[in-house]
Amino acid sequence: MEPPSPRTALENLTLVDADALDCGVCFLPLKPPIFQCMVGHVLCSQCRDKLASARSCHVCRAPMDGGYRRSHAMEKLVDSIRAPCPNAPYGCATKPAYHDLQPHIKACQHAPCHCPEEACGFVGSTETLLAHFTTGHGWPCTTDVRAEESFHMELREGFNVVDVVDLDGAMKLLFLVMVSPERLGRAISAVCVRPPRADGDEPNFYLYGLELEFDRPSRWHGDRQKSCFDVECTDLSDGLPNADDRFQFLVPHIIVLPYDDNPINIRACIYTQIR
Hints:
Elements: H1 6-11, E1 34-36, E2 42-44, H2 45-50, E3 69-70, H3 72-80, H4 101-107, E4 113-114, E5 123-124, H5 126-136, E6 141-146, E7 151-155, E8 158-165, E9 172-182, E10 185-193, E11 206-216, E12 223-234, E13 249-252, E14 264-274
């Protein structure tokens, strides 16, 4: 058996003390440009600027004639150390530089979402959630839906799943449409299931909304109702948002009787807007 190559051995290295990659002043991960004293104690660029007038090292008090100097070797080292995303079990294959790990985690779209069913602890990506909703719970699902295009839904009481492709076809969206009995009819509300986005990670990102419409034609007159409302995005880690805080589209008893178990026929459209 051939011995492992040096490169293979290096790939299996374990970092015992991650603090060695942190700034010695602010204790945040070091990223270029990095500076050091004559002995080799390092600090980040922002802390170097704050200590520009210092005449000795912040650690060893060695004289600082000429100030802190660039540590090109340390810069190369921190750029070469890659960390797997903690969302790797949910499909993320990205291995950012150690100093970029936390920003990546905040924006990672593979962060897990949760099943809203009580007593169900399933956690997974939106792709696995879709399979869990339809196979594990048997919730009805409307597929092949494209954003901004009208489609037909047959909604039953409880959870209804909508599998959506966004405008450019690059991303799939997962919507849950809930139907619950109310005194005057059936209330319909919705959420978009997706990982949270970190503020400022994307200068333009989409918000989602839902347009619902039903009508009941008759010989003499007809009943028709149409509403457009924004849809909250959530990873459901805290369960479903409070129903009182969500817009609820009411289908009155004149359309669906209280004892009627047939699905509610609704025309719908999922639309997007850029914030």
